[in-house]
UniProtKB/TrEMBL annotation:
GO terms for molecular function: sucrose transmembrane transporter activity; sugar transmembrane transporter activity. It is found in: Cell membrane. The gene is LOC113860743. Residues 258-270 have a biased composition (Basic and acidic residues). The chain crosses the membrane at residues 12-34, 46-63, 69-92, 104-124, 130-153, 165-185, 191-212. Residues 250-276 are annotated as: Disordered. It is a multi-pass membrane protein. The keyword Hydrolase does not apply. GO terms for cellular component: plasma membrane. Gene3D superfamilies: 1.20.1280.290. Mediates both low-affinity uptake and efflux of sugar across the membrane. This is Bidirectional sugar transporter SWEET. It comes from the Eukaryota. Its main location: membrane.
C-alpha cells in the first residue's frame, strides 16, 4: 500500500523537529561560557535576535496556514529558547552592547514584525495573506544565508577549515533535507524553497571540508589552556534561523601568524643601505 503524502510530511516534519531542536540547544555551551566568565566577550546578540525574528515569523505563518502543526511546534520552542538566550546576553553584556541589543530588538523584533502583521492583516486578504507572509519568510530565510557564505569564502581564501567544523555542515544538510521533504509533501513551496539553498550550501561546505582538511592545521599534541579565545561561527538552520557556535582558535597557528606578521613588519622598517 502506498504511503500517503500526509504520512510522509509528518515523518519528515518530526525528524526536522528533532534536528532543529538540537540546533536550537547548541548555543547552550556559548551561554555557559558567558555565565562562567560573567561577560559576553566578543559575542554579538544579532544572530539570536535574527533567530527570534525568524522563529516568530514562521510561527505566525504556521498559525495563518493552519495545517503546518510541526512548523508551529518547533518555532514555538525556538521563540522561547531565543528569548532566554537574549535575556542572558543582556544580563552579562556591557552597557554599549546592551544598548545596541535593545535598539536592534525594538527595530527588528518589534517594529518590523508589527509592520508585517499590519500589512498582512489589513492590506491583503484571503489566501493571498498566507502567500505574502510565506514569501516574506522565504526572503528573510535566504537573506541570512550571508553569514555561512562568508565562512565558505574564508575557507577558500585561507585554505583552512578551522572555523567550519564538519558536524555543523552535516547538521545543516540533514536539517535541509528534512524540512524540504516536509514542505514538498505538504505542497508548500515557501517551506521547501529555502531548504534547496540550505542543502546546496551544506553540500558545498562538506565538499570544501574534504578538499581543505588535509592542508589544514597540523595539530600538535599540546595542552590547551582553559577558556581559550573563541571564534563566532554562524550556522544557518534551513528554516531561516541562524545559530552561533563557539569554535576554539588554533593557538599554535595563531602564534605562527603573529610571528610572521612581526617579521614582515620589521623587514619593511629596515633602512635601505644602498649607496647612491
Amino acid at each position: 500500500m502506498a504511503i500517503s503524502h500526509n504520512t510522509l510530511a509528518f515523518t519528515f516534519g518530526m525528524l526536522g523537529n528533532v534536528i532543529s531542536f538540537l540546533v536550537f540547544l547548541a548555543p547552550i555551551s556559548t551561554f555557559y561560557r558567558i555565565y562562567k566568565k560573567k561577560s559576553t566577550e566578543g559575542f554579538q546578540s544579532l544572530p539570536y535576535l535574527v533567530a527570534l525574528f525568524s522563529s516568530v515569523l514562521w510561527l505566525y505563518y504556521a498559525l495563518l496556514k493552519k495545517d503546518a502543526f510541526l512548523l508551529l511546534t518547533i518555532n514555538s520552542f525556538g521563540c522561547v529558547i531565543e528569548i532566554i538566550y537574549i535575556i542572558l546576553f543582556i544580563i552579562y553584556a556591557s552597557r554599549d552592547a546592551r544598548n545596541i541589543t535593545f535598539k536592534l530588538f525594538m527595530a527588528m523584533n518589534v517594529s518590523s514584525f508589527a509592520l508585517i502583521v499590519l500589512v498582512t492583516q489589513f492590506a491583503v486578504h484571503g489566501p493571498l495573506r498566507v502567500q505574502v507572509l510565506g514569501w516574506i519568510c522565504v526572503s528573510i530565510a535566504v537573506s541570512v544565508f550571508a553569514a555561512p557564505l562568508s565562512i565558505v569564502a574564508q575557507v577558500v581564501r585561507t585554505k583552512s577549515v578551522e572555523f567550519m567544523p564538519f558536524n555543523l555542515s552535516f547538521t545543516l544538510t540533514l536539517s535541509a533535507v528534512m524540512w524540504f521533504g516536509y514542505g514538498l509533501f505538504l505542497k508548500d513551496i515557501c517551506i521547501a524553497l529555502p531548504n534547496v539553498l540550505g542543502f546546496a550550501l551544506g553540500l558545498l561546505q562538506m565538499l570544501l571540508y574534504g578538499i581543505y582538511r588535509k592542508g589544514d592545521m597540523k595539530v600538535t599534541k599540546e595542552t590547551k589552556l582553559p577558556l581559550e579565545p573563541l571564534r563566532n561561527v554562524v550556522v544557518e538552520n534551513p528554516l531561516g534561523t541562524g545559530e552561533v557556535f563557539p569554535v576554539e582558535e588554533n593557538q599554535q597557528g595563531k602564534k605562527i601568524k603573529e610571528k610572521r606578521e612581526e617579521k614582515e613588519k620589521e623587514k619593511s622598517e629596515e633602512p635601505n643601505d644602498c649607496a647612491v
